[in-house]
Write a structure and sequence with these properties.
mainly alpha, 3 helices, 81 residues, 0% strand, 69% helix
């Protein structure tokens, strides 16, 4: 497991904050509406194809996964209420 440098920690924090501001659709049809988080996933995957193995893209994938899980758990809690 890699440990983040101070620069990577700061990048991770800034990126996580940026992700929290993005809109996400919870709809059956992914072609309907605006889903900025899905667009971000596509962008990161595209960049990873161009420059494979870059630490920045690895961090972005990790933070996107965390944000999606966070939102799903919040939605599940709201549905249970």
């Amino acid at each position: 497991m890699l440990h983040d440098t101070q620069e990577e920690k700061e990048f991770r924090e800034r990126y996580a904050h940026e992700l929290r501001m993005k809109k996400m659709q919870f709809s059956v049809n992914p072609h309907f509406g605006l889903d900025e988080l899905a667009d971000e996933v596509k962008s990161v995957k595209r960049q990873e194809l161009i420059t494979p193995g870059r630490r920045g893209e690895q961090i972005k994938h990790e933070e996107i996964s965390k944000e999606i899980l966070r939102r799903l758990s919040l939605r599940d809690r709201a549905d249970q209420s």
